[in-house]
Amino acid sequence: MSTYAALCICLSLTSADLTVNTDFPGGSGTVVLLDQATRSLTIQPTPHKDTGWECWWYFQLSGVTPGEEITLTVKSMVFGLPRWAGVSYDNKTWKQTPPGKADKGTVTYKLKFDQEKIWLAWGPPFQKSDAEELIERTVKKNVGATKFELARTKFDRPVPALRWDPPAKEGVKRRGIWLQSRQHAWESGSSWVGAGMVDWIASDDPEAKALRETTRIVYVPIMDIDNVEIGAGGKDQKPHDHNRDWSAEPVFTAVAAAQKGISEMNEAGEFNLFIDLHNPAPDDSKPFFYAVPANLLSPERAKKQGEWLAAAEKFLGAEKLSLAKDIKESGPGYHPLWRQISKTWVVHNTRDHVVACTLETSWNTPNSTQEGYQAYGRALGKAIHLYLQQP
Ligand SMILES: [Zn+2]
After folding, report:
1. 30 and 46 in contact (C-beta within 8 Å)?
2. CB-based burial of residue 247 (10 Å sphere; 0-12 exposed, 13-18 middle, 19+ buried)?
3. Which of 66, 239, 368, 373 is the one with CA 20 to 30 A from 288?
4. Which of 154, 138, 134 shows the shortest CA–CA distance to 225?
């Protein structure tokens, strides 16, 4: 064997270079440090000017030698530092990594994989393609659902949405609900909750069938699709984010279209419930509801809200993710633009019996997984059915 051949064999036994790729929808991750010798890398969310919090990261890592230990450090604001990161071998099914070690402004994971190429993310991603796939599979079930385009965004992306609009019966008012996710782009868990709910509504469960045959239902999987697709955080973007845009003159076409859709159902006397799906702060270990301050609710709305929370507690409280006993209020002390938060707008622009709230599903727990979120969404569907059965 020549010296040259020996050198080649020797080199082939050393590890391939680790490579980070973010060139796909939702991709985010700027390499701060990459040490091929120690197999360690540090990344931070890719910055995008004026698009809000830099807390979302999602990248493909290749060059992995199966079984080797890789040290991944993520540098971010605290919202971008999950205890368990998301990992996928096919960019479709996501599991959690072992817990990372938090330090000030960073979290470090020691990781081993049995594949050369894997995907890592803040949590299970849910992109425009996932929204379209959810809508397609629901429509194909022939359970009365149709797809529609809620709006086209500033960057000319469609905002895909799903609706059930069962035939009206003479003299009978239908009930109506509007649910939406991702007014804050980084909160991907909220779209998985919505997906679980939609799959339940479209299921063989007789209660799901009863719900969809008597209720006008709209679900928007991703409101801020522009930032979701470029991998930006969205929250607190310029001039303000989607959930501070619910005024008489919204900046975002998706918000304007949602207001129009809600108003139409409300004016028809066919609207009952609005739920805005979000993910909260890292230390919120149990999901909870945000509501408009109690002193701004009419007695009837307060009563209906109490009934809704009791129905929600029955189903969501029984889930692994559970439900916090107390609701939180977002009033004047919460944010200067509190009046322009979606549920506040709904309360101020709908009939007195309509309930409007935000559901914040915890993301920093062992149950904050694709399956955990979807189970939570199924429970949400059951709670909605129970609530709407009440007179
Ligand atoms: Zn949010």
Report:
1. yes
2. middle
3. 239
4. 154
pLDDT band at 8 (very low <50, low <70, confident <90, very high): very low
CA 178 from chain centre, in angstroms, equals: 16
CB 196 within 8 A of CB 157: no
The string of pLDDT tens digits covering residues 279-295 is 999 999 999 999 999 99
Last residue in a domain, options 70, 103, 121? 121
Whether 60 and 170 share a structural domain: no
pLDDT tens, 36-81?
Answer: 999 999 999 999 999 999 999 999 999 999 999 999 999 999 999 9
Tokens linked to 143:
């359970």
361 Cα: distance to centroid of ligand 1 (angstroms): 10
Query: At residue 22, what are phi and psi to the nearest 5 degrees?
Result: -125, 20
61-74 burial, b for 16+ CB within 10 Å, e for fewer? beebbeeeebebbb
End-to-end CA gap in the chain: 87
**Ligand 1 centroid to residue 138 C-alpha, Å:** 26
Name 288's bridge partners.
360
d(CA 189, ligand 1 centre) in Å: 10
Q: How far apart are CA 73 and CA 161, in angstroms?
A: 36
Q: Which two tokens stand for residue 170?
A: 């003479």
Residues 6+ apart with CB under 8 A from 319: 375, 376, 379
Q: Which pLDDT band holds residue 15 (cuts at 50, 70, 90)?
A: confident
- CA–centroid distance, residue 280 to ligand 1 (Å): 6
Q: What is the DSSP letter of 314?
A: H
Among 98, 121, 144, which residue terminates a domain? 121
- Flag whether 2 is in a domain: no
Number of domains in the chain: 2
Could you tell me which of 42, 46, 43, 44 has the C-alpha nearest to residue 28? 46
- Domain containing 74: what range? 15-121
Do residues 337 and 254 share a domain? yes
Q: For residue 236, report the distance from its CA to the centre of ligand 1, in Å.
A: 10
The Å distance, Cα 242 to ligand 1 centre, comes to 9
Question: From the CA of 243, how far away is ligand 1's center (Å)?
Answer: 8
- Distance (angstroms) between ligand 1 centre and the Cα of 340 equals 14
